[in-house]
Design goal:
Strands 1, 2, 3 and 4 form a four-stranded antiparallel sheet that branches. Helices cover about 40% and strands about 20% of the residues. It has one helix and four strands. With about 130 residues, it is an alpha+beta fold. The protein has one domain.
Length: about 130
């Protein structure tokens, strides 16, 4: 009787299939974690804009601006106006929107800040007053 060494084709196929499944699960989870991190970045940016509007702009002026940018909200990092994919607030394709309402002569009484999230519903902040 001969003594055989090595693996059978069936053993190799099972090991390759298992390794492939493990890699697929790893990359799917990695993609999910990256999307959740981008969502967290979006929430941080919206919160920064919200507090800059409420504690800075409104407290000083008594109204909200018609549009927001780094010029009228200089207290926050200008990079926060750019979403995780590089689109600036107010530009087409941006995850961020600022919608002023009840405006007269560039002075608004209300606004809505919105971030479109990948893994959750939209993140929305509205004016306090």
């Amino acid at each position: 009787m001969k003594n055989k060494h090595g693996f059978t084709i069936l053993e190799l196929v099972v090991v390759i299939a298992f390794a492939t499944l493990a890699l697929i699960l790893f990359f799917l989870q990695k993609i999910n974690i990256e999307a959740m991190a981008r969502d967290d970045d979006r929430k941080i940016a919206i919160n920064a804009m919200y507090y800059a509007l409420e504690e800075g702009f409104y407290a000083e002026n008594g109204y909200y601006p018609e549009t927001i940018s780094e010029e009228n909200l200089p207290v926050i990092d200008p990079n926060l106006f750019t979403d995780p994919f590089g689109n600036n607030l107010g530009k087409s394709g941006s995850s961020y929107t600022y919608e002023a309402a009840n405006c007269e002569d560039g002075k608004c009484k209300e606004y809505t800040l919105r971030a479109i999230l990948e893994k959750e519903d939209d993140y929305i902040k509205r004016n306090r007053s």
